Amino acid sequence: MKLSIVATLYNSESYIAEFLLRASNAAKQLVGNDFEIILVNDGSPDKSLELSREFTKNNENLVIVDLSRNFGHHKAMMTGLAYAKGDKVFLIDSDLEEEPEWLLLFSKQMSLKNCDVVCGIQEHRKGDLFERWSGIIFYSTFRWLSGLDLPKNLVVARLMSRRYVNALLTHMESELFMAGLWVITGFDQQPYKVVKHNCSETTYSFYKKISQFINSVTAFSKRPLLGIFIIGCFIFMISALWAGYLIVNWLFWERPPNGYTSLMASIWLLGGMVTAFLGIIGIYLSKVYSETKQRPYTIIRNIYKSADFREG
């Protein structure tokens, strides 16, 4: 098979029909009828599964991978990639904020550059002021902490070669951060500037964004642990100097320290820092605990194809 198109479903019922039409037309222009469209239902609470199953009746190129519950966007994407069989794999969101027709542009770029990946990059991040600034802070902080050259304003849409997808699937983490995995997998990856539309409300709440940030940093960076060590050493040095001053002061001048304000402030400051540091260490330990259990990152409940209806 020449091409696989992979997308996830979550609150996507209003977009499925147009997405399938546009994705199919783009794929036919590129490879004829030698393609598949894989939609991964990530426990969508609306009628995305029912509607997409109806489309499989008359679309032999369509495959629905139904997960047993909501596992998260990144894990659903990896499940779709694992099921894809195409020589090239086009990953994209199904909400039409990313255009299915980018497939043709990405394919042309891949041929010109002779690369393994063409990935979409927003020249200007979409959304309101909070979404734009939170994105800037996230990418800047992640690059500084992880040391990875993560492109700014990266979107989901990307066209990948078979060997790149196979290499990507060798990562066995149960807690996934796809943008980081895309980068560390390597190969020749070329950006393509795109304009992402604002067609739907984001499903990433403020809490989800914070959780993703913590997960991404702890998955790809040891610097928070190094920072704890450095700050601990700094506090120890300051404390030692202060203790030395108090001893000298007591031996030669006999002037006891005045008041308890500085003492209580120091106790609360150090207590808060110790609690925060223990929390950071706890996050790393919880990730180790999660990985050692070796649980699958998704569970597939069923797979639907047009052949199922013909056999029935």
From TrEMBL:
Keywords: Glycosyltransferase, Membrane, Transferase, Transmembrane, Transmembrane helix. The chain crosses the membrane at residues 225-253, 265-285. The keyword Translocase does not apply. It is found in: Membrane. The keyword Transmembrane helix applies. One of its GO terms (cellular component) is plasma membrane. Residues 4-138 form the Glycosyltransferase 2-like domain. It holds the Pfam family Glycos_transf_2. Its main location: membrane. One of its GO terms (molecular function) is glycosyltransferase activity. It is a multi-pass membrane protein. This is Glycosyltransferase.
